[in-house]
Write a structure and sequence with these properties.
Radius of gyration: 19 Å
Structural class: mainly alpha
CATH architecture: Orthogonal Bundle
Oligomer: single chain
Number of helices: 12
Number of domains: 1
Length: 249
């Protein structure tokens, strides 16, 4: 492997920017994790998965992993099962959001399906099976036409629910919780995951708009294979086009 071409300056620069944002995001708590003391969902859940879209799944995971490890070292977190579990789900969200349509369709069905199976095989999960109903959403979404499954909000929802499915399966096998606790979480999960999905979609638009503006303003030449931007979500450019069209008319 040619590491010089693989780790280009521009790609490393984006990795460093994203790395800094992750460290900041992980310091801002959103909601506590049930079953673990002093553990929280953070602002990181609102933008973590988009790394896979801009950098590709491999570099997206590298960005998240490097930030997670650094956070452990800087903050001095204990290397416990709970802390390790919190790292893994985001990898799956990064892959979901970063995969192209065909791979995402397969991935978006097989991972939640396996998680549902693993959850209900657990004695507690067998009783609290209704908790897995959320994981049917990405499965159904990826069966429907591509226009629907590729929608930004649905893609964001699929990413956060995939992370939720993986995290919940690991959680039920490692953290003692009764069925009543899982039942109590059902409405909370709906609220949290919808907010996470909106945050992921909003972050994706913000990153696309900001990066496109910077690249255009300073005339930076970035190969498409290094940084993947979706011009549809570059709002300043789209706004400029609309304004120009209206003035011309």
């Amino acid at each position: 492997m040619d590491f010089k071409n693989f780790f280009t300056k521009k790609r490393v620069l984006f990795l460093l920017i994203f790395f800094a944002l992750v460290l900041i995001g992980k310091k801002i708590n959103f909601s506590p994790l049930v079953g673990a003391e002093n553990q929280f969902f953070t602002l990181f859940q609102f933008f973590g998965p988009i790394a896979g879209s801009f950098l590709g799944p491999v570099f997206g995971i590298i960005a998240v992993l490097s930030a997670e490890v650094s956070d452990f070292l800087i903050v001095g977190k204990e290397w416990s099962i709970v802390n390790f579990v919190r790292v893994l789900p985001m990898f799956f969200a990064v892959m979901y959001f970063g995969f192209k349509a065909k791979r995402r369709e397969f991935y978006g069905m097989i991972v939640p399906a396996l998680c549902i199976l693993a959850f209900v095989m657990h004695p507690v999960g067998k009783v609290a099976w209704i908790y897995t109903i959320y994981w049917v959403i990405p499965i159904v979404a990826n069966i429907l036409p591509k226009k629907f499954s590729g929608n930004l909000l649905m893609r964001s929802l699929g990413a956060t629910l995939t992370a939720h499915a993986v995290g919940s399966v690991i959680w039920i096998y490692t953290i003692p919780m009764g069925a009543e606790q899982w039942f109590a979480l059902v409405p909370i999960v709906g609220y949290e995951r919808l907010l996470f999905a909106l945050g992921i979609a909003g972050s994706y638009v913000l990153f696309n708009t900001t990066l496109d503006y910077i690249i255009t303003k300073w005339k930076i030449n970035i190969p498409s294979k290094v940084l993947f931007l979706d011009k549809r979500y570059a709002l300043l450019k789209n706004f400029s086009k609309v304004t120009t069209t209206n003035v011309t008319k």
